[in-house]
Request: fold
Amino acid sequence: MPVRIKICCIRDIREAETAIRYGASAIGLVAEMPSGPGPIPDDFIRQIAAATPPPVATFLLTSRTSVREIIKHHHLTNTNTIQIVDALSEGTYDELKGALPYVKIVQVIHVVSEASVEEAVRISRSVDAILLDSGNPNLTVKELGGTGRVHNWHLSRKIREQASCPVFLAGGLKPENVREAIETVGPYAVDVCSGVRTNGLLDEDKLEKFFSEVRRASSTGN
Reply:
């Protein structure tokens, strides 16, 4: 099965159109974060989501951690997917799904140790997908994505093998390493931000190389 591609940190409608033209299955729209690249105002997110044609998934990246606040955030942006970049602090996934039954829920797991495997497998039973990234939510200023760092793909492989839902792989991916990442982990999809950008802007040469390498990896199997 072909590995899907999510292009994250989309800044405007033009970038969304470029990502989709190259074959992106999903785009990531970053809301306010404690750190990291690419945040845009909620009204921009709403505009881009409204302009994105189905079946492309529009991901709201939210750092809110209570179900009540996540629901409010969704109503401001109206994406078809919510990517929760930190651990839930209040409420449950069932409550979130009950309030937003037509919205997909993706939980980010920051892969830092063997404990991340247990956490990911447990949460995978409650969400539509998990996304494995290289942040560190334990820092004073939380890193919740966009670090440009690669994490331990062998831990990600363990998660993918045991998870009850599809697994997205993020964290330091770029044209030069995405094929190895796919062959090592075998994810449902890959997620890239800075790896296809130059000076913060989407770079079509990098996009072309990235998509080409993903297709090559998909054609050889995982």
Notes: The mean pLDDT is 92. Residues 204-220 form the longest helix (17 residues).
